[in-house]
Design brief:
Strand 8, helix 4 and strand 9 form a beta-alpha-beta unit. The protein folds into two domains: 42 residues, no CATH class; 199 residues, Alpha/Beta hydrolase fold, catalytic domain (Rossmann fold). It has six helices and eleven strands.
Amino acid sequence: MQGRAGRGGKQDATLTAVPSPPRLWPRRVLRAFVAVAVAALLLWRLAPTPAFLPLATRIDGPAPADAAGVIVFLHGKGGGLAAAGRMASALREVGLPADVAIVLVEGPYHTWFGHQWGDTAAQQADSRRRLRERLHELLGDRGPPPERVVIAGFSQGAGVALDVAVEEPRIGAVASLSPCASMLRAELPGRGGLRVLLAHGAADAVCPVDESRSLARVLEQAHRPARYVEFDGPHTIPMEVVSAVAAFATAP
């Protein structure tokens, strides 16, 4: 604190402010908050849906336990319920009867932009277990007979659909659309009483068409021929395949 001489030699009471050191704690708090927010985002995006929770599910049509038939649809890697919902709309558009329930299920593992069924064999085995549990919850002790319970999937979901069909006796038909791989492929020919639909684009650069072509040959050699649909297109589900799935699910 300093004064200055006024008239008559008296000290002026005016004070000269001395700058105080900058307060750093707000910046530290902000950095800590950002770090916590980033960690929470990573946990939310990359951690699986907790095992004690059922898989996120959306149903189009009647309750599965009361339906004439059920189609369970599994999205591809990076998809989710919104993407699967477009398949449900397309199935209704091509004439899938209203008494057939469409069950859309979301994968329990995350990608940066969506959901998936797992990158490892252990993760996919866990996804299949949770899918079977969810199916049993939805069907209970009732539901349509196995020949009217179809599991279908696209891309990564197509391979998981094949594997769930191998393991789950309440499923009587599987529609595999452009699969990349199947963990239980070698066991598929031995699954009795299972109808199989395979569909794949000849120009698929994501999951090459040879995956479905070779699987069709394996099933043919095991005297369990599949219905095979190959279309001139990339990694997608054209309306001709949607129509094939609807007809397959309701075939006598």
